[in-house]
Amino acid sequence: xxxxxxxxxLIVTILVSIGLYYLLIHFFPAFSYSDLNLIALxxxxxxxxxxxxxxxKAAQSTNKYSFLNIVVMNLFIKVFASFxxxxxxxxxxxxxxxxxxxxxxxxxxxxxxxxxxxxxxxxKVT
Length: 126
What we know:
The chain is mainly α. 83% of the residues lie in helices and 0% in strands. The protein is built from four helices and no strands. The chain has helices spanning 3-27, 34-60, 66-93, 101-125. The radius of gyration is 16 Å and the shape is elongated. The chain starts with a helix and ends with a helix.
Protein backbone atom coordinates (compact mmCIF):
# COMPACT_ATOMS: atom_id res chain seq x y z
CA UNK A 1 0.00 0.00 0.00
CA UNK A 2 1.51 3.32 -1.05
CA UNK A 3 1.43 6.47 1.04
CA UNK A 4 -1.43 8.15 -0.81
CA UNK A 5 -3.62 5.03 -0.46
CA UNK A 6 -2.77 4.89 3.22
CA UNK A 7 -3.70 8.53 3.80
CA UNK A 8 -6.90 8.12 1.81
CA UNK A 9 -7.81 5.14 3.99
CA LEU A 10 -6.89 7.04 7.13
CA ILE A 11 -9.07 10.00 6.16
CA VAL A 12 -11.99 7.68 5.38
CA THR A 13 -11.46 5.93 8.72
CA ILE A 14 -11.48 9.24 10.59
CA LEU A 15 -14.62 10.40 8.76
CA VAL A 16 -16.38 7.08 9.48
CA SER A 17 -15.40 7.37 13.12
CA ILE A 18 -16.67 10.95 13.39
CA GLY A 19 -19.88 10.05 11.55
CA LEU A 20 -20.59 7.07 13.77
CA TYR A 21 -19.83 9.14 16.86
CA TYR A 22 -22.36 11.81 15.90
CA LEU A 23 -24.89 9.14 14.98
CA LEU A 24 -24.30 7.55 18.37
CA ILE A 25 -24.79 10.77 20.33
CA HIS A 26 -27.84 11.64 18.23
CA PHE A 27 -29.62 8.52 19.48
CA PHE A 28 -27.90 8.28 22.88
CA PRO A 29 -27.03 11.76 24.22
CA ALA A 30 -25.44 10.20 27.31
CA PHE A 31 -22.50 9.14 25.10
CA SER A 32 -21.47 12.72 24.42
CA TYR A 33 -17.79 12.69 25.35
CA SER A 34 -16.38 14.72 22.47
CA ASP A 35 -13.13 15.51 24.25
CA LEU A 36 -12.25 11.85 24.71
CA ASN A 37 -13.44 11.11 21.18
CA LEU A 38 -11.01 13.69 19.78
CA ILE A 39 -8.19 12.31 21.92
CA ALA A 40 -8.97 8.79 20.67
CA LEU A 41 -8.98 9.94 17.04
CA UNK A 42 -5.60 11.61 17.48
CA UNK A 43 -4.12 8.70 19.41
CA UNK A 44 -5.20 6.02 16.96
CA UNK A 45 -4.25 8.15 13.94
CA UNK A 46 -0.73 8.61 15.30
CA UNK A 47 -0.44 4.90 16.10
CA UNK A 48 -1.64 4.04 12.59
CA UNK A 49 0.97 6.35 11.05
CA UNK A 50 3.68 4.79 13.21
CA UNK A 51 2.61 1.25 12.33
CA UNK A 52 2.43 2.12 8.62
CA UNK A 53 6.00 3.42 8.75
CA UNK A 54 7.16 0.25 10.51
CA UNK A 55 5.26 -1.96 8.05
CA UNK A 56 7.03 -0.30 5.12
CA LYS A 57 10.38 -0.90 6.83
CA ALA A 58 9.42 -4.53 7.53
CA ALA A 59 8.50 -5.06 3.89
CA GLN A 60 12.08 -4.13 2.99
CA SER A 61 13.65 -6.23 5.75
CA THR A 62 15.35 -9.57 5.20
CA ASN A 63 14.14 -10.78 8.60
CA LYS A 64 11.11 -12.97 7.92
CA TYR A 65 9.72 -12.32 11.43
CA SER A 66 9.89 -8.52 11.31
CA PHE A 67 6.34 -8.16 10.02
CA LEU A 68 4.94 -10.44 12.71
CA ASN A 69 6.88 -8.45 15.31
CA ILE A 70 5.20 -5.27 14.09
CA VAL A 71 1.73 -6.79 14.35
CA VAL A 72 2.37 -7.95 17.93
CA MET A 73 4.02 -4.66 18.87
CA ASN A 74 1.02 -2.76 17.43
CA LEU A 75 -1.34 -4.78 19.60
CA PHE A 76 0.62 -4.05 22.78
CA ILE A 77 1.10 -0.36 21.98
CA LYS A 78 -2.60 0.16 21.25
CA VAL A 79 -3.77 -1.66 24.36
CA PHE A 80 -1.24 0.05 26.64
CA ALA A 81 -1.87 3.51 25.15
CA SER A 82 -5.63 2.98 25.39
CA PHE A 83 -5.48 2.03 29.06
CA UNK A 84 -3.17 4.95 29.77
CA UNK A 85 -5.34 7.52 27.96
CA UNK A 86 -8.54 6.29 29.59
CA UNK A 87 -6.92 6.23 33.05
CA UNK A 88 -5.60 9.78 32.62
CA UNK A 89 -8.97 10.93 31.28
CA UNK A 90 -10.80 9.45 34.26
CA UNK A 91 -8.31 10.94 36.71
CA UNK A 92 -8.54 14.42 35.17
CA UNK A 93 -12.26 14.68 34.37
CA UNK A 94 -13.86 12.30 36.87
CA UNK A 95 -16.80 11.37 34.58
CA UNK A 96 -20.17 10.73 36.21
CA UNK A 97 -20.76 7.42 34.44
CA UNK A 98 -18.95 4.72 32.48
CA UNK A 99 -20.50 5.61 29.09
CA UNK A 100 -17.31 7.37 27.98
CA UNK A 101 -15.95 3.91 27.17
CA UNK A 102 -18.49 3.32 24.38
CA UNK A 103 -17.21 5.98 21.93
CA UNK A 104 -13.60 5.23 22.85
CA UNK A 105 -14.06 1.51 22.19
CA UNK A 106 -15.87 2.31 18.95
CA UNK A 107 -12.82 4.28 17.78
CA UNK A 108 -10.53 1.49 18.89
CA UNK A 109 -12.46 -1.04 16.81
CA UNK A 110 -12.73 1.19 13.73
CA UNK A 111 -9.00 1.87 13.71
CA UNK A 112 -8.23 -1.80 14.37
CA UNK A 113 -10.22 -2.73 11.26
CA UNK A 114 -8.33 -0.10 9.25
CA UNK A 115 -4.94 -1.28 10.55
CA UNK A 116 -5.82 -4.89 9.82
CA UNK A 117 -6.70 -3.87 6.26
CA UNK A 118 -3.52 -1.93 5.54
CA UNK A 119 -1.29 -4.44 7.32
CA UNK A 120 -2.78 -7.27 5.24
CA UNK A 121 -2.05 -5.22 2.10
CA UNK A 122 1.51 -4.60 3.30
CA UNK A 123 1.94 -8.29 4.14
CA LYS A 124 1.21 -9.24 0.53
CA VAL A 125 4.19 -7.13 -0.49
CA THR A 126 6.57 -8.97 1.84
